[in-house]
C-alpha cells in the first residue's frame, strides 16, 4: 500500500521533476485508496485486485432493478464534470454511464470553442471554475501533464476535488489500462490469472498511450512476458523498456508480428495514431500495413485459449471476420470499462466497502 504524501506540500516545479514512482504517493488517500487517478504507476497489485473484484460485484449487483437502485443511491449527492477536449466515444460514454450507475449527475464540456477558454482564460482558471461546481473532474486532453497540473493546482485551493485522467497526450490512459487488466483477469480467471501470461502488442506502440499505461500495470504480475511487434518507426519508447528492465520483466522487440501470434495468451492490437503526424502520411511509410494486421486466417495461428484485444476505435487492424470468434474479446473489453470505472469512482469516494457488504448479503 502507498503511504500518502500531500500535494499541497510540494512546489509545482519540484513535483514535475519526480519520477512516476515518486509521484504515485501524492495521488492516494490516507486509507491507501486512490484520490486522483493520473498514472498507471500509482496502482499496485493489491489495488488492482481490489478494483477488479469490486467491478465484478458492481456488474453482478447491477443485473437487477433493486441492485441498480442500491448502486444509484450511493453517490447521488455528487456531480462530475467530464472535460473531454479530445475526441472520444467509449471512454466518454463509459464514464458517463459509470456516473449514472452510481447516481452521480454528470455534466460535460467537449468543445473548448464554446467555453470561455476561447476568451483567453487560462487552463488553471478553467479548472478552478469546474471545481467550484463539481465534486469530480474527469478529463481527456491532448495536453500531456494537464491532469497532474490540475490535481496539484486544486490541492492548493479551498476546493480540491479528485481528478481522473481519461487520456493525456501521447503519454497515459490509466483507466483504459485498468479495463484491460480487468478483461485479462476475467479471460484468464480459470487459467491462473494474468501471472505467467504472454501479451503480444501490435501497431503504433510509439504513440499509443493505452499500451504505455498497460505495460506499466502488467509489471505488477509475476512471470509475464511482453512482446512489442511494430515497424521500427512505431516501436515502443525507451522509457517503457527502461521500466521493464528495472522491474525484471521479460520483453521482446520485433518487426515480425505474424511469427509471434502462436506464442501469445493475449494479442493486443492498436491503430495508427496518425493524428500526431507532423506531415500527412509520415507514419504510414516504410513498412507494409498488412504485416501488422490480424486477418481472418490468423485465427488459425492463435491458441484456443488466447484472446484478441483492441482498445478501439478500430480502423483496419483486425478483420471483421474475427468478430464472432469466441477469442475476440474487444467488445466485452469495452463494456468492462463501464464496470471498472464505476469501481474506481466508488473507491475514490469510499463506497467500496458498502458495495462489498451489499454483495455479500444479497448476491454471493
Ligand atoms: N479506447 C478509447 O480510449 O476509446 P475512445 O477514444 O473512443 O474513448
Characterise this structure.
Helices cover 36% and strands 12% of the residues. The chain has 12 helices and 9 strands. The strands form 2 sheets. A 5-stranded parallel β-sheet has the order 7-6-5-8-9, covered by helices on one side. The chain has a 4-stranded parallel β-sheet with strand order 2-1-3-4, sandwiched between helices. Helix 3 packs across helix 11 and helix 8 packs across helix 9 (209-218). The longest helix is centred in the C-terminal third of the chain and has 19 residues, at 330-348. The mean pLDDT is 96. Residues 88-92, 167, 176, 311-313 line the site of phosphoric acid mono(formamide)ester.
Name the hetero compounds present: phosphoric acid mono(formamide)ester
Beta-strand content estimate: 5-15%
Count of DSSP-assigned helices: 12
State the strand order across the main sheet: 7-6-5-8-9
Count of individual beta strands: 9
Low-confidence stretches: none
**What gap, in angstroms, lies between the N and C termini?**
27 Å
In terms of structural class, how would the helical and strand content be classed? Answer: alpha/beta
Reported for the largest beta sheet, the result is: 5 strands, parallel
Rg from Cα: 20 Å
The H-and-E topology, N to C, reads as: HHHHEHEHEHEHEHEHEEEHH
Give the proportion of residues in helices: 25-40%
Shape: globular
Mean pLDDT: 96
